[in-house]
Design brief:
It is a single chain. With 126 residues, this protein is mainly beta. It has a domain at 26-97: SH3 type barrels. The protein has no helices and eleven strands. It has strands at 26-29, 38-45, 50-53, 58-63, 73-78, 81-82, 86-90, 95-97, 99-103, 109-113, 119-120. It has a six-stranded antiparallel sheet with strand order 6-3-2-1-7-8, with no helix packed on it. It has a three-stranded antiparallel sheet with strand order 9-10-11, with no helix packed on it. A hairpin with an 8-residue loop joins strand 1 (26-29) and strand 2 (38-45). It is elongated and about 55 Å long. It starts with 25 loop residues before the first strand and ends in a 6-residue tail after the last strand. Bound molecules: zinc ion.
Length: 126
């Protein structure tokens, strides 16, 4: 269980909004200081509509020693950024794209690139 207070923007809302970005996706940052960089989505905070992306928006956190981390000190970790500041990267188009959805033959919903209509794989379920 994560301690509250620290980056606990993922707070109570009756229904967490659906999010096209999923854990494991490759996304490109389109705004902010990391604009133009891309990385893998580490986690999705659906309620806050934020994502944390590998090597993006890295912040330094000063920690006191505890059970997990006996040393303490300065820890670098990714801070969440808003989903509107990232776009899903299409491997076929080789650029960030908008995402649509398509119903497959078996009834499952899949995400597709709006440019090339290629399926965007979902590496992990969140
Ligand atoms: Zn595409």
């Amino acid at each position: 269980m994560r301690r509250s207070g620290w980056l606990s923007a993922n707070r109570a809302l009756p229904e967490p909004p659906k999010c096209v970005v999923r854990k494991g996706d490759t996304v490109v940052v389109i705004a902010g200081k990391d604009r133009g960089k891309s990385g893998k989505v580490l986690s999705v905070l659906r309620r806050a509509r934020k994502v944390t992306v590998e090597k993006i928006n890295v912040i330094k956190r000063h920690t006191k020693p505890n059970q997990q981390n006996r040393q303490g000190g300065i820890l670098e970790r990714e801070a969440p950024i808003h989903v509107s500041n990232v776009m899903i990267y299409c491997a076929t188009c080789q650029k960030p794209v908008r995402v649509g959805s398509k119903t497959m033959a078996d009834g499952a919903r899949a995400r597709v690139c709006k440019k090339c209509q290629q399926l965007i794989e979902s590496p992990e379920r969140t």
